[in-house]
Structures are given as structure tokens and as C-alpha cells.
Design a protein that fits this description.
Elements lengths: L13 H16 L6 E2 L8 E2 L10 E9 L4 H7 L5 H13 L5 E11 L4 H18 L2 E9 L9 E12 L14 E6 L8 H11 L6 E2 L4 E2 H5 L7 H9 L5 E6 L4 H7 L6 E6 L7 H10 L3 H5 L6 E7 L4 H10 L4 E9 L8 E5 L2 E9 L5
Helix pairs in contact: 1-4, 3-4
């Protein structure tokens, strides 16, 4: 008689999952303040929200996202402790756009085979980014999917919840004629547009270990540069009354114009000067290597602007000073004015289902 099948024989190693948890526990615990109850391994993460009693009208903000095909770069290089910054950045920096403080985050990792050290590296990166964001990593799940994913493949996703006082809610309702649009520099590609970037690299036949003079490092090192996590710095700026912050926009998929339009009210338009900053080398290399039109680049990649703050005209200097003190590169992109209804190339109105204001891109990019 043949031996019966076991779960392990089917490709799932529960013991490996347990080892991964042991390897990551210390990093996760570092994100836990006094509000986190229990430890790692519970069925649910518990977070004491007694502080909400001090709010007049607390609003919960939630977000979920993944890293996208950037994980293919991490897998090819066998470097897994930075991808967590991309995940956390994509999630918590969507929450902070409305002025909410991200309180808790959970993660989900699906893989073809659980390699404890690799899973622990991923979660260590997530935990380190949560520390930067001031967010507790209160739970997660690792799922082994043999036959669906190859042994070396994985994907990551996460979700977070934050809170904002209703009276402090940021967004289109606070943006007015005369506001100033301020850019917060990105750390590189962040975690969007990698399907385009990877296609360009593949067609050019460039290896990830290729030294690229424009980067002063290898192609792989540039492509794996972690996403800048803005949450804590944006909250510090928003709480500085002299900065007069009215709205934030997280520049992710769709590029600068489409995401900025989402936080402008109908009837107002932001004019953005393409020449107000020098586009970082990685974007120009992608453009030149793949013959990618500027119009496609600006609709796909952040081009060096990872977050945008819309502030009152009288608060612009204070906002720039505050961002400089926080160590963030920042500059004036343009201004907000009444929408004249003009049509044409470089003008975007609303995006992703939002019936928002308009953004007009003018001038030429500098490289």
C-alpha cells in the first residue's frame, strides 16, 4: 500500500512558518507602544483606542495596497529587507493625505515556499518602515501557495487604519484660490510603474548588476531604492499652524497631475511648472533607454515628486522652512487659481473616479 499524502508532501511547511514568526518577533515588537495589547501570534491584533475619547468627532481612515512588480527586482537580487518600506509607504501615506495619523497596520505575504529567513527579512523591513511612520504593526499572515507561485516567488500586501479629528480633515474643501503647491521630493521610483521600467530594462538587455554611471551604483541598487515614507513628516507639517496646510496628494500610479487633481475642488486649477525641479537621473535613463515619451512618463511615474502639499499663500515660506528642518527636499511647484475651463495637452481634470479640479502642466522638464 502506498503512503498517504500529508500537508508537507503537498508543499506546505507549517513548521517553516513558525520559524519565520520567531525570527521576526523582535522587529515587530519594536513597533508596539503601550496601546498594543498582547503580542505576536494572536488571532487578532488588539489596539487600545481610549485616546479617541478626547476627540470630538473622530474619523477613521483606512487604506490597503501592495508593492506591485517591484517585488520581482527584490526576488532577482535576493534582497528582501527593503521591500517593506515600499509596502508601508504605499499604504500609510495614502492615509496621511487626509490628515489622519496611521495607528495600526497589518500585512499579508503569499509565497510559493516559506523560507523563514526570507519571510523574516520582508517583515523586518515592514516593521522598520512602521517605526518611521509611527505606526504599530499589529498582525499579519504568511500563506504558502505551492503550485500557484514558484518556490522563490512572493507577493505582499497590507492595510492600515488611522484617525483624524473631523475639524482637522484635509482635502478639497479647504483648498482656495491663491494656494501654493509644494513638492516633497521622492527617493526615486518608489513603487509605481515597474511594469514599464522592467519592460524597458528587459528590451535593452541590461543586467541588474550593471554599473550605471548616472546612478553611481548598479541598476539593481537603483531600482530597489526604498520608497520614502512621509507620514510622520506630513503630520508634523499639518500640525504646524503657520504652514497653513490645506491638502496633501500622494503621487503614486497615474503620476503627478492625476493625483493632484484628486485633492482640488471643482472650479479650481493648479498650474504646475515642469521646469521647477530637475528630474532625477533614473527617470531620464528609463526615458532614453526605452524611447518612452515624456507624456507617458508623467502619466506613469512620479518623476521626482513623491508627495504634494497644498498650503495657504501666507504659509508657503513656513511650510518650506518646516520641511527643510525635517530634512525633506521641497520646492514650490505652482499655484492654485480659478479654473478657466481650458482644454488641451497637459491639462487633467479629476482622476480615478473623483470629480475634482484641474491641473495644468506647463513648461519643459529639466534633466
Amino acid at each position: 500500500m502506498s503512503d498517504g499524502l500529508t500537508y508537507a508532501a503537498a508543499g506546505v511547511d507549517t513548521a517553516a512558518g513558525d520559524r519565520a514568526v520567531e525570527l521576526m518577533k523582535t522587529a515587530v515588537a519594536r513597533t508596539h507602544g503601550p496601546n498594543v495589547l498582547g503580542g505576536v501570534g494572536g488571532f487578532a491584533g488588539l489596539f487600545d483606542v481610549s485616546m479617541l475619547k478626547a476627540y470630538e468627532r473622530p474619523l477613521l481612515a483606512s487604506s490597503t495596497d501592495g508593492v506591485g512588480t517591484k517585488v520581482a527586482i527584490a526576488q532577482a537580487l535576493d534582497i528582501h529587507d527593503t521591500i517593506g518600506f515600499d509596502l508601508v509607504g504605499m499604504v500609510v501615506d495614502d492615509i496621511v493625505v487626509c490628515g489622519a495619523q496611521p495607528l495600526v497596520m497589518t500585512d499579508y505575504i503569499a509565497t510559493g515556499k516559506v523560507v523563514p529567513e526570507r519571510i523574516a527579512d520582508i517583515v523586518r523591513g515592514i516593521a522598520a518602515a512602521c517605526e518611521v511612520a509611527g505606526t504599530a504593526l499589529v498582525g499579519g499572515e504568511t500563506a504558502e501557495h505551492p503550485g500557484l507561485l514558484a518556490p522563490g516567488e512572493y507577493d505582499v500586501a497590507g492595510a492600515a487604519v488611522g484617525v483624524v479629528e473631523a475639524s482637522a480633515l484635509l482635502g478639497p474643501d479647504k483648498v482656495v484660490d491663491g494656494d501654493v503647491v509644494i513638492a516633497l521630493g521622492s527617493s526615486g521610483l518608489h513603487s509605481n510603474g515597474y511594469s514599464l521600467v522592467r519592460a524597458v530594462v528587459a528590451r535593452a538587455g541590461w543586467a541588474l548588476d550593471r554599473d550605471v554611471p548616472e546612478f553611481s551604483r548598479t541598476l539593481g541598487e537603483e531600482l530597489l531604492e526604498p520608497t520614502r515614507v512621509y507620514a510622520s513628516d506630513c503630520l508634523a507639517l499639518a500640525r504646524d499652524e503657520s504652514a497653513q496646510v490645506h491638502a496633501f496628494s500622494h503621487v503614486t500610479g497615474g503620476g503627478l497631475a492625476a493625483n493632484l487633481a484628486r485633492v482640488l475642488p471643482v472650479g479650481l486649477s493648479a498650474t504646475v511648472d515642469r521646469g521647477s525641479w530637475a528630474v532625477p537621473a533614473v527617470f531620464d535613463v528609463v526615458r532614453g533607454l526605452g524611447g518612452v515619451p515624456w507624456s507617458d512618463l508623467e502619466n506613469t511615474l512620479n518623476l521626482g515628486v513623491g508627495m504634494v502639499a497644498v498650503v495657504g499663500a501666507a504659509g508657503a515660506d513656513a511650510a518650506l522652512a518646516r520641511l527643510a528642518a525635517l530634512g525633506l527636499p521641497a520646492w514650490v511647484l505652482g499655484t492654485v487659481a480659478v479654473d478657466d475651463g481650458a482644454q488641451g495637452a497637459g491639462i487633467v481634470r479629476g482622476s480615478k473616479g473623483v470629480d475634482g479640479g484641474a491641473v495644468c502642466l506647463v513648461g519643459e522638464y529639466r534633466v
